[in-house]
């Protein structure tokens, strides 16, 4: 639990497309790295070393600063047994904690439900991005999804939509449009409630940018804009405890060197600016960030890129994080690989459980579907 009277806040950052573990946390002294990466191996003199054997990608300087400040934990070899190399299936598993079947309930949906059982705050969980991540989807749990905070809620400023009667008419029209395809009854009630929640959320969240001022100058890229929006809503004290956003694609089958460098330049800069923004406003002490990707990439490069793999790396960031490395870097020896991939050594559901139980104060077992090893990064 957070050692503050403020509610604990979790920010989830999804690196979509499968970030390359080996070129993110680089085992530069291991000869097998150079042997398997004749084309993608990063020059040692460009790496940002943080131990005698490991280094960050050259574009991760701002992340290294967080490491130096004791605000970062690295979780090695994360994944799950019988890993899928499919983006869609693997993301489903990470989002629902259901590796053996197709799940329908998002793990963060369960978290939001447990934080706000009565669904009183439609902003308890907020996503910045297109659509709604499956991780946050759970029937009866309101979640606000925002593609652009600056323009979100603009419809509620139009006089014809502002009044209650007109708003109800708009929702009724929404229902009529979809009713031929989906029928009536429970489904329509759900859609109607979702519409009402969305409008209510828009009314409230649109005030966040109006209250915000900062000396931090975020970069002009999508992840920087999303994390700036997270900061704005957090600083507006609207009761949001779960934030979600994603960036990518990290699916670097080809042309990886410039692509991966640009991606990590954007992500590391945005994450650093985000925490600097919160610290400037004395609002960082109750925020931690979870960074994950669906799987790592193949040990052997394919020429200009590398293909889908298994074991990966995740990060926990924030003032409350117990810094350091957790778990073991998977072996790169040929006999220890599975079909050319690093073998996961730590179940991601234990990673989630650590956040759910030790940070948010919830019973993790029903959230992740069992009891899994937690780590002491919180």
Protein architecture, described:
It is a single chain. The chain has two domains: 9-152 and 217-368, Alkaline Phosphatase, subunit A (3-Layer(aba) Sandwich); 153-205, no CATH class. It has twelve helices and twelve strands. The chain has helices at residues 31-36, 61-68, 87-96, 107-115, 159-162, 164-182, 186-205, 208-211, 222-235, 256-280, 348-359, 365-368; strands at residues 9-15, 25-26, 48-49, 55-56, 72-79, 125-128, 144-146, 242-247, 287-292, 312-317, 324-326, 346-347. Strands 1, 5, 6, 7, 8, 9, 10, 11 and 12 form a nine-stranded mixed β-sheet that branches. A three-stranded antiparallel β-sheet has the order 2-4-3, with no helix packed on it. The model is unreliable at 154-163 and 177-183 (pLDDT under 50).
Descriptive terms for the model:
378 residues, Alkaline Phosphatase, subunit A, 2 domains, 9-stranded mixed β-sheet, 3-stranded antiparallel β-sheet, 12 strands
SSE inventory with pairings:
Blueprint lengths: L8 E7 L9 E2 L4 H6 L11 E2 L5 E2 L4 H8 L3 E8 L7 H10 L10 H9 L9 E4 L15 E3 L12 H4 L1 H19 L3 H20 L2 H4 L10 H14 L6 E6 L8 H25 L6 E6 L19 E6 L6 E3 L19 E2 H12 L5 H4 L10
Parallel strand pairs: 1-8, 1-9, 5-11, 5-12, 6-7, 6-8
Antiparallel strand pairs: 2-4, 3-4, 5-10, 9-10
Helix pairs in contact: 2-10, 6-7, 9-10
Concise synopsis of the structure shown:
With 378 residues, this protein is of the alpha/beta class. The protein is built from twelve helices and twelve strands.
């Amino acid at each position: 639990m957070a050692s503050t009277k403020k509610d604990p806040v979790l920010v989830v950052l999804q690196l979509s497309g499968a970030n390359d573990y080996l070129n993110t946390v680089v085992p530069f002294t291991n000869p097998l790295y150079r042997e398997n990466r004749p084309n993608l191996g990063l020059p040692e003199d460009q790496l940002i070393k943080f131990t005698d054997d490991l280094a960050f990608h050259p574009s991760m300087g701002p992340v290294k600063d967080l490491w130096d400040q004791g605000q970062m934990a690295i979780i090695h070899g994360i994944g799950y047994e019988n890993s899928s190399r499919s983006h869609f299936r693997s993301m489903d598993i990470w989002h629902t904690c259901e590796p053996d079947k197709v799940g329908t309930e998002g793990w963060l949906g369960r978290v939001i439900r447990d934080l706000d059982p009565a669904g009183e705050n439609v902003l308890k969980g907020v996503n910045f991005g297109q659509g709604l991540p499956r991780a946050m989807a759970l029937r009866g749990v309101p979640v606000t999804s925002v593609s652009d905070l600056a323009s979100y809620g603009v419809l509620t400023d139009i006089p014809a939509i502002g009044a209650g009667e007109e708003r109800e008419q708009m929702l009724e029209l929404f229902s009529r449009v979809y009713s031929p395809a989906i029928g009536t009854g429970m489904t329509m009630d759900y859609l109607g409630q979702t519409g009402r929640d969305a409008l209510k959320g828009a009314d409230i969240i649109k005030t966040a940018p109006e209250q915000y001022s900062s000396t931090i100058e975020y970069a002009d890229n999508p992840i920087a804009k999303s994390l700036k929006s997270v900061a704005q809503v957090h600083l507006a004290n609207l009761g949001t405890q779960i934030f979600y956003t994603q960036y990518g694609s990290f699916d670097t089958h080809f042309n990886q060197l410039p692509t991966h460098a640009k991606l990590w330049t954007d992500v590391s800069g945005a994450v650093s600016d985000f925490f600097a923004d919160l610290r400037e406003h004395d609002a960082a002490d109750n925020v931690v960030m979870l960074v994950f990707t669906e799987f790592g990439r193949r040990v052997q490069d394919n020429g200009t890129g590398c293909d889908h793999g298994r074991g990966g790396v995740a990060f926990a960031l924030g003032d409350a994080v117990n810094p350091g490395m957790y778990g073991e870097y998977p072996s790169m020896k040929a006999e220890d690989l599975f079909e050319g991939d690093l073998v996961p050594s730590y179940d991601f559901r234990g990673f989630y459980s650590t956040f759910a139980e030790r940070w948010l104060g919830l019973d993790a077992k029903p959230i992740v579907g069992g009891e899994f090893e937690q780590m002491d990064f919180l």
